[in-house]
């Protein structure tokens, strides 16, 4: 015989009811348990009542008659029964194994006593947990052999019941790219955690007096309500730390004999350009065994992407003007007016990821102070001719006077100057920095900026920004500046390339230092950086020209 209890999951403090049913032969008992009541209420008692002492003791007034009848009948039967029959009845007496959520919590002689223990546990749980907690339980009894009955203490039974009961609550899951990272108790707390992760990056923008345009995560972050076990809810600090953790740590590699950046990149499923970015100044032509390089940066579980509006001032390099001066001898010059750089204010939108700039967009420029040109007076005054007498031109003859030959000889020959760029003023780092600002802009044949470039249009545009006037086409730029060897390359040098041995220069780029160059790539259709030792560049390298002094 099984004794079954039908149980509703009831929220703490709701005042709901839980029903228990006991079926034994032709006897049926139904119990209604109300949270907060110390005893169950018994109703619908039919047939001959069984010998549940615990139940009988709960509500004596309601079941007095059935109990009396049961005792009378039992007394009548046993008064004439042989002694051995009485012993057999005692041996056949049953016990009940109690289950909570299909977990056995003990064997007792009286099922009603187990329900008492259960009710006491519910009262304790109500005091222990907040009102928004649900108790999920299903209680039932199975009749077992009396020999299995144990003298279970109330404390032990209560402990077993509490472990078997499911405690659930409404929580909010914080999910990253569809994966649940943690659960917190409220939507407000989840929002507070998310804002706390973004706050340092917002503060840095505001500290720099820039305007915050947008703050978001690079990942898909969602906050969704879920019903979970109470012990799965995470405290705010712990949840914040979980979301701030690294998904991946920095990855390093130790160079061995025979390594190159290309073999290292292939073996580690990365790109040479990425390795060079992570290791600025790396000499790719001189990798040494035992040398340690970075292969990947730290990757956060969450990446905070910010967009800010900023403005900054930049110098406008002054130009140089030359004026002819007849009062100054040819080949001489003097400075009439010193040059002075101007200033301009540039408005930009800057996108950062975890505080690191990933792109910027120029919105506009305003000239704050106009530059003042340097004026140089170039002499045009030619020297007076010098008259010399040549003795070979002089002869004496009778009847004839001597004749002097005068020869006018110019004492000046215009100097021969090398073809080169008109000079401005800039530093190596400034040229490279301005060139990097054009990264990602499209390649368009014949374009010379500011929004699109071809290769020579790009180099011309960069140097014109600093007041240097280069020849417009690649072949002509091979005559700008002065020649430098590959071993003496410096940032800002113009690199020359040609696919044909002895043929004209067909491509130009700007050297950035560290074996890297930046150029307008026809194949990639945009401004990119590359390694000078790449297959195309190493094979077709034809020289370099230095524009800067």
Describe this structure in words.
Helix 4 crosses helix 5 and helix 6 packs across helix 7. The chain has a six-stranded antiparallel sheet. Strands 2, 8, 10, 11 and 13 form a five-stranded antiparallel sheet that branches. The chain contains 13 helices and 31 strands. Strand 10 and strand 11 form a beta hairpin. The protein has five domains: 2-164, no CATH class; 172-248, no CATH class; 251-297, LysM domain (Membrane-bound Lytic Murein Transglycosylase D, Chain A, Roll); 309-416, Resuscitation-promoting factor rpfb fold (Single Sheet); 421-549, endopeptidase domain like (from Nostoc punctiforme) (endopeptidase fold (from Nostoc punctiforme), Alpha-Beta Complex). With 549 residues, it is α+β, with helices and mostly antiparallel strands.
Keywords:
549 residues, alpha+beta, 5 domains, 6-stranded antiparallel beta sheet, 5-stranded antiparallel beta sheet
Write a brief caption for the model:
With 549 residues, the chain is an alpha+beta fold.
List the helices and strands and how they pair.
Layout: E1 2-4, E2 10-11, E3 17-24, E4 27-34, E5 41-46, H1 53-58, H2 60-79, H3 83-92, E6 94-100, E7 103-108, H4 111-128, E8 133-136, E9 139-145, H5 154-164, E10 166-176, E11 179-184, H6 187-207, E12 211-217, E13 221-229, H7 236-244, E14 246-248, E15 251-254, H8 261-267, H9 272-278, E16 292-296, E17 299-300, E18 304-316, E19 320-329, E20 333-337, E21 342-353, E22 356-369, E23 374-381, E24 386-389, E25 406-409, H10 428-436, H11 455-464, H12 474-477, E26 482-484, E27 494-497, E28 507-513, E29 516-521, E30 526-531, H13 535-540, E31 541-546
Parallel strand pairs: 19-23
Antiparallel strand pairs: 1-9, 2-8, 3-4, 4-5, 6-7, 6-9, 8-10, 10-11, 10-13, 12-18, 14-17, 15-16, 18-21, 20-23, 21-22, 24-25, 26-31, 27-28, 27-31, 28-29, 29-30
Helix pairs in contact: 4-5, 6-7
């Amino acid at each position: 015989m099984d004794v079954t209890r039908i149980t509703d999951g009831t929220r703490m403090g709701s005042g709901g009811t839980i029903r228990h049913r006991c079926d034994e032969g032709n006897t049926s008992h139904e119990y209604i348990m109300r949270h907060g009541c110390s005893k169950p209420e018994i109703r619908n008692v039919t047939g001959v009542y069984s010998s549940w002492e615990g139940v009988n003791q709960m509500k004596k007034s309601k079941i007095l008659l059935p109990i009396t009848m049961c005792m009378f009948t039992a007394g009548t039967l046993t008064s004439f029964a042989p002694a051995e029959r009485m012993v057999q009845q005692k041996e056949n007496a049953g016990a009940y194994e109690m289950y909570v959520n299909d977990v056995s919590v003990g064997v007792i002689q009286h099922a009603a006593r187990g329900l008492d223990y259960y009710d006491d546990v519910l009262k304790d749980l109500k005091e222990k947990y907040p009102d928004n907690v649900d108790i999920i339980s299903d209680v039932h009894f199975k009749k077992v052999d009396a020999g299995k009955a144990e003298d279970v203490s109330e404390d032990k039974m209560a402990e077993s019941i509490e472990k078997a009961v499911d405690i659930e609550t409404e929580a909010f899951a914080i999910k990253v790219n569809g994966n649940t990272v943690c659960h917190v108790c409220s939507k407000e707390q989840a929002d507070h955690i998310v804002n706390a992760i973004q706050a340092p990056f917002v503060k840095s923008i505001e500290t720099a007096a820039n305007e915050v345009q947008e703050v978001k995560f690079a990942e898909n972050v969602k906050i969704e309500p879920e019903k979970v076990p109470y012990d799965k809810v995470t405290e705010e600090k712990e949840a914040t730390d979980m979301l701030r953790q690294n998904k991946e740590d920095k990855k390093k590699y130790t160079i061995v004999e025979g390594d190159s950046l290309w073999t290292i990149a292939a073996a580690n499923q990365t790109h040479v350009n990425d390795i060079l970015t992570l290791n600025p100044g790396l000499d790719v032509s001189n990798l040494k065994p035992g040398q340690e390089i970075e292969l990947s940066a730290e990757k956060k579980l969450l990446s905070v992407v910010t967009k800010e509006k900023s403005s900054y001032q930049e110098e406008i390099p002054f130009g140089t003007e030359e004026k002819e001066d007849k009062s100054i001898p040819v080949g001489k010059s003097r400075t009439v007016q010193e040059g002075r750089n101007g200033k301009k204010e540039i408005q930009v939108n800057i996108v950062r990821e975890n505080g690191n700039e990933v792109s910027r967009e120029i919105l506009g420029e305003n000239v704050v102070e106009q530059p003042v040109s340097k004026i140089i007076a170039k002499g045009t005054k030619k020297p007076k001719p010098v008259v010399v007498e040549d003795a070979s031109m002089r002869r004496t003859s009778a009847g004839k006077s001597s004749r002097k030959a005068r020869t006018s000889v110019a004492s000046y020959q215009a100097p021969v100057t090398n073809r080169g760029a008109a000079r401005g003023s800039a530093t190596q780092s400034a040229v490279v920095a301005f060139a990097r600002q054009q990264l990602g802009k499209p390649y368009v044949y014949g374009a010379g900026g500011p929004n699109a470039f071809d290769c020579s249009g790009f180099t011309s545009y960069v140097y014109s920004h600093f007041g240097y006037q280069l020849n417009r086409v690649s072949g002509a730029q091979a005559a700008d500046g002065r020649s430098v060897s590959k071993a003496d390359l410096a940032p800002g040098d113009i690199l020359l390339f040609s696919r044909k041995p002895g043929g004209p220069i067909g491509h130009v780029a700007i050297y950035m230092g560290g074996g890297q160059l930046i150029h307008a790539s026809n194949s990639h259709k945009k401004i990119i950086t590359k390694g000078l030792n790449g297959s195309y560049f190493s094979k077709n390298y034809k020289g370099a020209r230095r524009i800067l002094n």
